[in-house]
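Example 9 (inverse folding). The structure is encoded as follows.
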């Protein structure tokens, strides 16, 4: 009898594990119903899908301003070589303008950021400085749960955030294990969530000014 019960328990554990494994991609995709917000914020990465989605959200009247972050890049290093580096924010701005967002409605945050945590802290601070109360955060579908979790952890409920995924993103939520791109996305997002739930004990990678000298 004990062996039979143990066998049933093992089967149940395996079934739960399989269901959790298969459903991980869909679970990571967390969206809020949209309503009008003061700001539509486009998180860096996922070019051009996130920018295209921001353009659609703007066109539907959910916001009158689109804000962009300024990802840290190798501009200074390349400038020393006489090479101009166009940051991701410039390409996102071009996509938004192509999609009908007026250039005057696009605002690039002043400080460079190296990760999602810094992005959300930067935009939260900028919103409070400018008296903005609500925001729509646009990212890739598999990134939305971590974005929401980090906003609650780092910014809180004021300003209020709604999280929205880029619907044209190539991530396959129902079959994420079929290609390395989606597998890496799921693993990264789950590890990031664990870090967020634990209070962010693992710091982000250093930006340019924090990197140790190679000398």
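The amino acid assigned to each position is listed next.
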């Amino acid at each position: 009898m004990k062996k039979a019960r143990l066998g049933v328990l093992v089967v149940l554990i395996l079934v739960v594990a399989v269901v959790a494994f298969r459903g991980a991609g869909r679970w990571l995709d967390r969206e809020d119903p949209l309503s009008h917000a003061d700001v539509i914020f486009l998180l860096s990465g996922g070019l051009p899908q996130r920018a295209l989605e921001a353009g659609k959200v703007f066109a539907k009247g959910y916001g009158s301003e689109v804000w962009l972050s300024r990802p840290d890049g190798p501009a200074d290093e390349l400038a020393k070589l006489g090479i101009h580096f166009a940051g991701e924010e410039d390409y996102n701005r071009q996509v938004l303008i192509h999609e009908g967002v007026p250039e005057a409605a696009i605002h690039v945050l002043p400080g460079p950021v190296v990760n999602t945590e810094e992005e959300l802290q930067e935009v939260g601070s900028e919103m409070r400085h400018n008296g903005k109360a609500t925001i729509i955060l646009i990212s890739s579908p598999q990134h939305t749960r971590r974005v929401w979790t980090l906003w609650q952890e780092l910014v809180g409920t004021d300003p209020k955030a709604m999280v929205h995924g880029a619907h044209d993103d190539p991530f396959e939520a129902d079959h994420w294990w079929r290609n390395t791109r989606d597998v890496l996305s799921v693993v990264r997002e789950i590890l990031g969530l664990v870090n967020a739930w634990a209070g962010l004990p693992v710091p982000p990678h250093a930006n340019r000014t924090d990197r140790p000298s190679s000398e």
